[in-house]
Specification:
Layout: H1 2-42, H2 47-72, E1 81-84, H3 85-100, E2 104-110, E3 116-119, H4 121-138, E4 143-154, H5 156-161, E5 168-177, H6 184-189, H7 207-217, E6 221-226, E7 232-239
Parallel strand pairs: 2-4
Antiparallel strand pairs: 1-3, 4-5, 5-7, 6-7
Helix pairs in contact: 1-2, 2-7, 3-4, 4-7
The structure holds adenosine-5'-diphosphate.
């Protein structure tokens, strides 16, 4: 229990630090990109223009990295809207299938007809894509990836066992694979930015930290269960929001987002 709290505090501290750096760096990249774009328009086709385009691509890669760091530091603006998470996940399944390739069998299972939450759909897509790519890397000879959406009611008694979770109604997204799994050492550090066991170029160590930041910024919780040889399960708990009543013209009734 203490271990989980210590871990949460550590993530908070790293989040503050990286979020601050990423924020300033992102502003600089915006200036670089903007200026390169203006120069590119003034330069005729040829080698000079190609150099500018290469610099522009590097700036875009940098912006993608800072975007993930901003998500981890919870400084990524979220455009949260009431959505049925089951429908969203079903909608993303083609993209996920293409991302993991044919050697991996993807199953999406949605239980219940209404799993509503206040959520930024494009950030959720990004998070699921990161999880799917990790699962793919953990199953080089193929396997099964299951994405399940269901409802979870965390009772006060249960939340005592899980000190990082508030009791309440949640939409639960479980992403499980039949891959290599993680050792306890890797599992403990997996959400840290820049922690990777992959070779340079294959991993940045920012995938899970982006997912962590996005979920906590959405008022949710994330849990990781993994054992070597037994695969990995990532559980994302998003606070349930009520579906708007058809006859209620005043708009959706949404549970206020709990303070982070
Ligand atoms: P990256 O994928 O770039 O290494 P992540 O933050 O997404 O960065 O993951 C950090 C590390 O956690 C990975 O390098 C890997 O060791 C481990 N990991 C993440 N997801 C899985 C998974 N599904 N199965 C096994 N190990 C995983």
């Amino acid at each position: 229990m203490e271990e989980e709290l210590r871990q949460a505090q550590k993530m908070e501290a790293i989040g503050q630090l990286t979020g601050g750096i990423a924020h300033d760096f992102n502003n600089l990249l915006t200036v670089i990109s903007g200026n390169l774009e203006m120069v590119e328009r003034r330069v005729p086709e040829g080698p000079a223009r190609e150099l500018i385009q290469a610099a522009q691509e590097a700036a875009d890669d940098g912006a993608r990295l800072t975007g993930q760091l901003l998500a981890f530091g919870r400084r990524q603006p979220l455009h949260a809207q009431l959505a049925d998470v089951g429908q969203l996940v079903a909608h993303f399944s083609d993209l996920l299938r293409r991302a993991v390739g044919e050697t991996i069998e993807l199953r999406t299972v949605v239980t219940g007809s209404s799993n509503h939450a206040m959520i930024d759909a494009s950030q959720l897509q990004n998070a699921l894509l990161n999880l799917a790519l990790n699962a793919r890397d953990a199953m080089p000879r193929g396997g099964r990836l299951t994405v399940e959406v269901t409802h979870a009611d965390i009772s006060p008694a249960e939340s005592g066992v899980r000190p990082d979770m508030r009791p309440g109604d949640y939409v639960l997204i479980s992403v499980s694979d039949t891959g290599a799994g993680m050792t306890p050492e890797v599992r403990q550090r997996a959400f840290e930015p820049f922690f990777t066991t992959k070779s340079a170029g294959a991993g940045t160590g920012l995938g899970l930290s982006m997912v962590y930041g996005f979920v906590t910024q959405s008022g949710g919780h994330i849990r990781l269960d993994s054992e070597p040889g037994h695969g990995t399960i990532v559980r994302i708990y998003l606070p349930s929001a009520q579906k708007p009543a058809e006859s209620h013209p005043a708009g959706p009734s949404v549970r206020p987002e709990p303070a982070l």
